[in-house]
Amino acid sequence: MPSGPSAEPPEELTSPLAYEGVWRFTAPALESSVPQARHAVRDLLAEQHVPVADAIQDTLLLIVSELVTNAVRHAALLSPQIAVQLTLGANWLRVAVEDDHPYRPKALEADEGDVGGRGLWLVKALTAEVGGKCDVAHTAGGGKAIWAELPLAPLATSPPTSR
């Protein structure tokens, strides 16, 4: 039987890129964990040479800060530890912050005079702005994971039309 062209795609189209993978770390539910989580995510992106656009990375780091802050402020009583998981795909990334508190928050717009209460709303708005998605999921242990998935590069916008 003659050997014809292979039906398998070339390896470079099927093998994961060097930076693809899943990283997870835990931290105490303390305010000091907010900048530590942000720095850990930023450093991981640099170490893995992830081709993430600066604007997306800035958005991601703000989202990490908001999600970890929310976990520290609202779940620490039932969750002395939180977990941050970063999943990197070929052209997207996902960050999830998990805690053991069963309450699933809602994204509420706060009134003008409110000092807090906008964290999840801000995360959802930032995620949508770059073409990503965000949600809350139950964990196996009865807690929750709030996650945001973003593209590595901003969505292409059409150039303004000239008149």
UniProtKB/TrEMBL annotation:
InterPro entries: Anti-sigma-factor_SerPK, HATPase_C_sf, HATPase_dom. Residues 28-145 form the Histidine kinase/HSP90-like ATPase domain. The keyword Transferase applies. The keyword Ribosomal protein does not apply. It comes from the Bacteria. One of its GO terms (molecular function) is protein serine/threonine kinase activity. This is Histidine kinase/HSP90-like ATPase domain-containing protein. Keywords: Kinase, Serine/threonine-protein kinase, Transferase. PANTHER family: ANTI-SIGMA-F FACTOR RSBW, ANTI-SIGMA-F FACTOR RSBW-RELATED. Gene3D superfamilies: Histidine kinase-like ATPase, C-terminal domain.
